[in-house]
């Protein structure tokens, strides 16, 4: 008898090695019918939908599927991702300066949230994890609110209740984030059931990381989505690392997370998450399918977590420092940029200029937001907000405790 | 006025709310076609349709997790957990999600849901069909915790719970489903048809959450009880001849401290009884509140009668259940000093 303990291909001071990954060529998979059944989705669940090839060309049936996405739409995607990366950069810096207690980047994963969000409609609701701030960026969420939340100042819509990055905005289709991993996945199913019952035409999108697919609520969600078939898209962001734990500890003997979802009777696709065009194409397809009433669909976004898990993490303790550079699917911003240059819609100069302009814009907002207070110079909201909203109407015992506090 | 069992009263409450409010949904294990293992939802699916009343997989976290999502999106889910003993897989969804959603989102999302569950022993259910986990919920900010002791209250409280804007844990003393239980398992059982508390008004009515009911006025000692123990306390008072004022708390969170305080100030003595285990039980909270609010009125040490700090047994159930004799001893001890 011998137990199996999965290990990553390389540890610190070893050479990054992704040779075991099976990366099929771009354009290899076609676009399935919107009402595809789980049983027929095997190739999509085990394969990898890719649009941009190594030269930056958009190829294959999925490229044709989004042929109407014009230069402006793609440039918007590029600007979304650049803005996301600029926000991450500035906010990481702010955390290093002690202006916020905590931050968490999504470097390398920008295409997924940015590309997906642009395919949703008003009224649709994401049930995100803490690494989907890209959804907010592409939903044009005001940076003042986003940064105010990180600084817990008077611009924070949550009035200092939540750990930085645990945003919430009903208006922007972003459900309140919980720190307990996985719980949002089943809630998205319930929300989508309510959509179906009230026939409001809206859909829900659940999000989870590869590590949290091990949680009970991931399985609860796949089962109930399979049973009731509500309008929900079940997204799995496989970025290879759950803090220090290699993705193999969550996959076990399954080939892919998409295959696991398919095992529950839900059609599933696996997508190159660093390919903005593949993200846009599959998101559009999935949104269209779900809104048309064909039931749930699962998508595994295959990517790599370039940054540390959070500002409390040091990945050099468990993986090679240069592993991100060796990721065979590249960087989403670089790849979209190459494609746009190839199309004649973009240039290196314009890219450098735009990148600088966006960073300047983000920095300008940051300076304004910091005038409202940071962790270094706090201007916190009244402590009495602790008692506000525990219940709709404050019960007597909370009133007494608030008085005891002096408010 | 029709006379109903507690099961019928609960069913009537759900029926009224399903008829009146299209946002109300009823679901759980065996709840749909069959109508629940205790028959609380019998006939509701046939009457209101599968979109409103339906069966779920055996996954309590899924049941409550779905309810959280539905509630946040404007529905009024009333979910059943088959036994309170089965609620633990849903504890995460109840305590970290439902209870906190309003607060953590600063009111952007709310969670008006009800989780019903049969609680308590007395049916030879053994350790996984007899538990009383109320203290695990009263310890959580953002929840309301309700436990009726009569068919009349069961209906009015359940309607109030479904209409409440916040999550409510609704504990149903299963030993009281078909009739009052005075703690003597060998005695003749009485049905609700023979008890005035079985009178249940037709149609819509509600009982405010957070309001206790003085079940019996008395001058010697205040007894704080809820659920099945209300009747055990009545039996103990009758048998001992002690003039006890028996308060049925009905709602544990929020707690009607005003009614408790007025009674203890009058009697100067207090006995707390519950079926749940003793250590860190809700009785400890009651005793702390009473001593804080009424210390200078007290004539004797506060007493509590609870289940033993051991798993609920099957064959020796009646040695575990805190019956009238134990309550009498506590009443007498309270009166001694």
How does this model look, in words?
With 407 residues, chain A is of the alpha/beta class. Chain A is 40% helix and 8% strand. Chain A has a five-stranded parallel beta sheet with strand order 1-2-3-7-6, with helices on both faces. In chain A, α8 links the parallel β2 and β3. In chain A, α7 packs parallel to α8. The longest helix of chain A is centred in the first third of the chain and has 26 residues. Chain A is globular, with a radius of gyration of 22 Å. In chain B, α3 runs parallel beside α4 and α9 crosses α10. Helices cover 34% and strands 17% of the residues of chain B. Chain B is an alpha/beta fold and 337 residues long. In chain B, strands 2-1-3-4-6-5-10 form a seven-stranded mixed beta sheet, with helices on both faces. A five-stranded mixed beta sheet of chain B has the order 7-9-8-11-12, with helices on both faces. Chain B contains twelve helices and twelve strands. The mean pLDDT of chain B is 97. In chain B, α10 links the parallel β11 and β12. Chain B has two domains: 197 residues, Thiamin diphosphate (ThDP)-binding fold, Pyr/PP domains (Rossmann fold), CATH 3.40.50.970; 122 residues, Rossmann fold (3-Layer(aba) Sandwich). Chain B is globular, with a radius of gyration of 19 Å. At the A-B interface, α7 and α8 of A face α3, α4 and α5 of B.
Brief rundown of the structure:
The complex is a heterodimer of chains A (407) and B (337). Chain A is α/β, with parallel strands linked by helices and 407 residues long.
Strand tally of chain B: 12
Structural class of chain B: alpha/beta
What is the helix fraction of residues of chain B, given as a range?
Answer: 25-40%
The radius of gyration over CA of chain B amounts to 19 Å
Poorly predicted regions of chain A: none
Mean pLDDT of chain A: 97
C-alpha geometry of chain B: globular
What is the terminal-to-terminal distance of chain B?
46 Å
Return the average pLDDT of chain B rounded to an integer.
97
Provide the CATH top-level class of the largest domain in chain B.
Alpha Beta
Listing every helix as H and every strand as E from the N terminus to the C terminus, the arrangement of chain A reads: HHHHEHHHEHEEEHHEHEHHHH
What is the number of helical segments of chain B per DSSP (H or I, 4+ residues)?
Answer: 12
């Amino acid at each position: 008898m011998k137990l199996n303990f999965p290990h990553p291909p390389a540890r610190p001071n070893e050479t990054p090695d992704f040779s075991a990954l099976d990366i099929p060529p771009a354009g290899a998979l076609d676009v399935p019918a919107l009402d595809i059944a789980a049983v027929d989705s095997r190739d999509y669940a085990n394969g990898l939908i890719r649009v941009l090839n190594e030269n930056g060309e958009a190829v294959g049936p999925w490229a044709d599927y989004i042929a109407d996405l014009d230069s402006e739409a793609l440039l918007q995607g590029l600007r979304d991702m650049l803005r996301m990366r600029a926000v991450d950069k500035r906010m990481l810096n702010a955390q290093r300066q002690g202006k916020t207690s905590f931050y968490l980047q999504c470097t390398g994963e920008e295409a997924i949230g940015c590309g997906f969000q642009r395919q949703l409609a008003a009224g649709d609701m994401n049930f995100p994890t803490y690494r989907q701030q890209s959804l907010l960026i592409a939903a044009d969420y005001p940076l003042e609110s986003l940064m105010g939340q990180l600084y817990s100042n008077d611009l924070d819509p949550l009035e200092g209740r939540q750990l930085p990055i645990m945003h919430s905005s009903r208006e922007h289709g972003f459900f309140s984030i919980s720190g307990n991993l996985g719980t949002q996945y089943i809630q998205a199913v319930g929300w989508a059931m309510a959509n179906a019952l009230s026939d409001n035409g809206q859909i829900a999108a659940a999000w989870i990381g590869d590590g949290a697919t091990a949680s009970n609520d991931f399985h609860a969600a796949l089962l109930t989505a399979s049973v009731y078939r509500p309008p929900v898209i079940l997204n799995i962001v496989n970025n290879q690392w759950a803090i220090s734990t290699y993705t193999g500890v969550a996959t076990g003997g399954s080939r892919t997370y998409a295959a696991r979802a398919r095992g529950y009777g839900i059609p599933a696709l696996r997508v190159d998450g660093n390919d903005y065009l593949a993200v846009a194409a599959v998101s559009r397809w999935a949104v269209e399918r779900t809104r048309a009433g064909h039931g749930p669909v699962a998508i595994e976004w295959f990517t790599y977590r370039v940054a540390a898990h959070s500002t409390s993490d040091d990945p050099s303790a468990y993986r090679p420092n240069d592993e991100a550079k060796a990721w065979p699917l590249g960087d989403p911003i670089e790849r979209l940029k190459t494609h746009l240059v190839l199309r004649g819609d973009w240039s290196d100069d314009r890219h450098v200029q735009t990148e600088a302009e966006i960073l300047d814009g983000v920095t300008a907002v940051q300076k304004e937001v910091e005038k409202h207070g940071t962790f270094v110079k706090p201007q916190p909201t009244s402590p009495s907000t602790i008692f506000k909203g525990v219940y709709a109407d404050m019960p007597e015992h909370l009133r007494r405790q608030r008085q005891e506090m002096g408010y | 006025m029709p006379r109903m069992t507690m099961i019928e009263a609960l069913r009537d409450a759900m029926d009224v709310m399903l008829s009146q409010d299209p946002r109300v949904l009823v679901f759980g294990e065996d709840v749909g076609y069959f109508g629940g293992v205790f028959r609380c939802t019998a006939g509701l699916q046939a009457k209101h349709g599968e979109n409103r009343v339906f069966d779920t997989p055996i996954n309590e976290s899924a049941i409550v997790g779905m309810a959280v999502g539905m509630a946040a999106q404007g529905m009024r889910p009333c979910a059943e957990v088959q036994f309170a003993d089965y609620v633990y897989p849903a504890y995460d969804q109840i305590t970290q999600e439902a209870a906190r959603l309003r607060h953590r989102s600063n009111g952007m999302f709310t969670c008006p849901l009800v989780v019903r569950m049969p609680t308590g022993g007395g049916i030879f259910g053994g350790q996984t069909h007899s538990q009383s986990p109320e203290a695990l919920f009263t310890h959580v900010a953002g929840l309301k915790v309700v436990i009726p002791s009569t068919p009349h209250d069961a209906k009015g409280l359940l309607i109030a719970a479904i209409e409440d804007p916040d999550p409510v844990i609704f504990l149903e003393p299963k030993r009281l489903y078909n009739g009052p239980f005075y703690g003597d398992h060998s005695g003749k059982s009485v049905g609700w048809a023979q008890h005035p508390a079985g009178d249940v008004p037709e149609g819509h009515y509600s009982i405010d959450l957070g309001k206790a009911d003085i079940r019996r006025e008395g001058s010697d000692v205040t007894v704080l009880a809820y659920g099945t123990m209300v009747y055990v306390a009545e039996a103990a008072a009758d048998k001992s001849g002690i003039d006890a004022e028996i308060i049925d708390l009905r709602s544990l969170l929020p707690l009607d401290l005003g009614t408790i305080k007025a009674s203890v100030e009058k009697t100067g003595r207090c006995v707390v009884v519950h079926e749940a285990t003793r250590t860190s039980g809700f009785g400890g909270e009651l005793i702390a509140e009473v001593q804080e609010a009424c210390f200078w009125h007290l004539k004797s040490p506060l007493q509590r009668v609870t289940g033993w700090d051991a798993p609920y047994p099957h064959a020796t159930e009646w040695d575990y259940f805190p019956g009238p004799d134990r309550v009498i001893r506590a009443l007498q001890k309270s009166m001694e000093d």
